User: Fold these one by one.
Assistant:
Number 1:
Amino acid sequence: MLSVSNLSVSFDDNHVLDGFNLDLQSGDIFALLGDSGSGKSSALRFIAGLESASNGRVALDGNNLSLDGNHSVKPELREIGMVFQDYALFPHMTVFQNISFGIDYLSKKEKIERVQTLLELISLQGIEKKYPHQLSGGEQQRVSLARSLATSPKLLLLDEPFSSLDKSHRDQLVQEVRVILKNAGVTSILVTHDENEAEAFADRVGVIHKKKLLIK
């Protein structure tokens, strides 16, 4: 479903990744571990089309997205969703407006149905009219997840989405988000530096070691 091959990333004379390879099947939940500066976020951003690379290829469902490190398909056309550490919700928009932000091509009725379905999926029914500041950190992160799933992405990338939460809420949310993604059947990659979080969240875990990816 996803194939990343021979990915190499350098910043000036600093070689971060060299020969990074990853293959995922549909519905896989994968966690990418690594120390700060190891290149894990760079790998994620290359897959998303937000960064170029010295070399590398990304294919999704057999279609080349990037070849030889260059952007061949724009990020917004890749059918890839992203969830960030800071939630990235629009503070002046309601939950409904945040979740439906990327699906304006749907009719009003279809948008309402899609948002309701996603709120049921994240177990936050009835909060459509609330604003982000009225939600807890965990609720905001689940709304961010719902917004990323609204466009029905083939692949979801999560860049340390739990790191700003305290441990008691983080452990619970890790399990909740895993269940949500499994129920939705969305292929996902989590970037984290927390080994326990990676093991609890993912079906498989990979570690960046000496610029390459090792699958545990």
Note: The helical segments are 40-48, 95-99, 108-121, 137-149, 167-184, 195-201.
Number 2:
Amino acid sequence: MQRQMETGNRLPGRRLGRTVATLSLLASVACSSAQQAPASVTAAVNPDDVALATWNMCGVEQWGCEDTGGAKDKFQQLRDLVGDLGVRVLLLQEVCSEDLVASAVRLGPEWHSAFEPYEEVDAEGRRTFVDCTGEGRGRAGLGLLAASPLPDAEAVPTPQPTVGLHRGILCARVPAQGMRVCNAHIALRESDTAHPDWEFRDDQLRSLMTAAAAGADDRTVLGGDFNSPPPGAKNATAWVWPRELYATYRECDQKGDASRKGRPTYEDGTKIDYLFTLLPRTACEVVDTEASDHRPLVMRVSRPDSTTAPATGLPG
């Protein structure tokens, strides 16, 4: 996929101006927290739990994904997440719109999807969608796939590059699981080709937090591909992270109040994929796959209807 490595130098400055683009919704298609580190998802399954996953599918072949398999390989990985790990809600990035629709159909009548396309903006302000390579695969974007209808699916307005690729944030209610989810694909560094020193990740992460708080905050799972390693002393751009994110929520792989680490999710050995929630986490797993340059991150939480919503700052 498109990727730029973090460097040891802080960006020279933050932008003076910003363009806010409201992404249009393309389609909504029918077809008690653990005190210690969350256990493996493959542990005994509690019927009162819900499993969710985030996965950058690397479905846009021209973005360096030629060697990660085709639509069939990626669907097989989705089916394994659903069948083997019992995942009921998936936050997907770099997915092709027609692959997403077909996946919902093949998984069964209870499965539904929502999709938000990426847009490429040129120096004259012209917008074009990004087409997936391969006949009949549709457009590239981020999506939601759930064993539930996805009412109120909407794209969240967030600052985007003036010239370059617009990713986005997509939120929806998941009534069958009693929760709400927000899926984010955060910008890369230097993603504005006209202003490579402008940083967008800080504002986009804040937009994600605002979107989560606007709904049922204590029943929301927010996550996706943040294109950022966890905040810490070795991360020269840790300042892009809102301090409140880890203070308010707990991340799937987080082991305690002060922890900001997690197992690698990207092929270069870094963690850049996340799932945050206030719901009690009961399991977390990073799944090996050859169908993408990202590894799916799977989190199991107590079903909202089966537990009292936890207070802010829940332990470990």
Note: The first strand starts at residue 19 and ends at 21.
Number 3:
Amino acid sequence: MLVSVAYDFLPKRRTVRTSQVMDCFGVDFEQGRYVLAEELELAVEAGQVVCFTGDSGSGKSSLMRAAAGQLEGVLDIDSLELEQVSLIDGLGLDVAEGLRVLGACGLGEAQVMLRTPAELSDGQRYRYRLAKAIADQPQWILADEFTATLDRTLAKVIAFNVRKICSRMGIGFLLATTHEDVVVDLEPDVHVRCRLGEEPVVVAGDCDGEGDAAAGKKSSASPMRSGSVRRPGTTGRISLGGITERMRLDSSCM
């Protein structure tokens, strides 16, 4: 697909304060048209992880939404209405699958699963929106400010699990974040780096440069990190108050 994003600067009226700023810094109102990207080529296919990273104001969210506009079956997690029922009920899945999805999104503690969305922190509510979107199984899930409200260790766990969900369920993800620390665990198929005042740079393939085949092997071999499993495998490690790393998600653990 080819993605173009541009904005026209609106006309503005001088005031005493704006004139003082202009005089102080030797600038004037911006005029004309600002082009963020013109026919940026993105080789996006169904069931991929597409990640847009960059500083605040660099245009990553605008590019992501422009790309989403050319795809079908996109579900924006911010558009989801959350019923005030328990998390496990709100997903509409059977208990075993509900535990698996909530655990993969870092909501695997029993007491948390019995709460309503109104009783969650902002970070928990973001993760629940992600879990609910996964439960709906759209073609694409769009998540702006991905993991922005999470501590960085937990953010990497969620990114790791998103990669596995994409590979296991065939759901595509469109993600925008200021935090590039999640890219290694996310292993995006397409990574768009945005920088203030520069052209976006598109990086195809997984972050290790090993290609799709290698990424597929790693995806099939690596279990999800989850808090929903009651009996961890021999390599399991419990941390972060219920988030469990490197744990099996087979039915025997439910």
Note: Strands lie at 2-8, 33-41, 49-54, 74-76, 140-143, 172-177, 190-194, 201-204, 237-239, 243-245.
Number 4:
Amino acid sequence: MKLVVSMFVTLDGVAQAPGGPDEDRSGGFEHGGWSVPHWDQAMVDVQIAWVDTLDALLLGRGTWEIFAAHWPQAGDDDPIAVRFNEVPKHVASHAPLGMTWEGSTRLGDDVPAAVAALKHRPGNQLQVHGSPGLVQTLLRHGLVDELRLWTFPVVLGQGKRLFERGTVPAGLKLLDTLAFDTGVVFQHYAMGAPVSYGSFMRDNPPPEELQRRLGIDAPPAPHADRGGPR
């Protein structure tokens, strides 16, 4: 199975608590629910079409607890709920799961190895929704095949970010992009492209630029000759 991550982020990369004020207040975060005012039916339709392709869910403990308290109660008229409730759910957690959600199992202590084994099972997609802490681990171990990024027109300046300090450099290939009337931009990437580099610098820079590159202070400019007797 391909491992595909879906993440909601602000323009400054915050991924914490997009769905409600009490979703995740850790670190004193007080901006929960920042994504909600920006949803419309067109966005929901994109999510429904994608969720219909999943064969299993992979979730971090915090996201699983939020989902387990919500989706079983959502009703059979909600296509996302129906699909989430019927597929296997694999949870990255160091402790036993504290509530029941049919089809849920806890991964072993070696999460990267367990996820690699899941990817070798038959199926189309192993989907990760939210779970920013788990996603950090998956990215570090090169386990993410595709990234579906929903960027919202919000800047928060604090909170857990998708790409935290220590993120491994990686190239991405853009597969699709959509812009919605609410200001949200959706980008679908394939992971694994090489990171390439270049330079706009001149091949033969002037002495001042060469000194800057080498970290050498430029010599003081000579005083202008003001004329007069010597």
Note: The radius of gyration is 24 Å.
